[in-house]
Amino acid sequence: ELVGVVWIGYDDQNKPLPYGSYGGTYPARIWRQIMSQALAGVPVKNFPRPAGIVTATVDSKSGLLPGPNTPPEHQVTDYFAEGTVPTEVDNTHVLVDICPVSGLLAGEYCPERVTQVRVQLPYNVPEFVEDYNERVPPKTCDLHTAPTVTPLLPPGEEEPPVEPPDGGKEQEEKEQGEKEPEEKDTLERRPPDRQQRRRILPQLPVENGLPAPVPEST
Question: What's the predicted TM-score (pTM) here?
Answer without folding.
Answer: 0.51
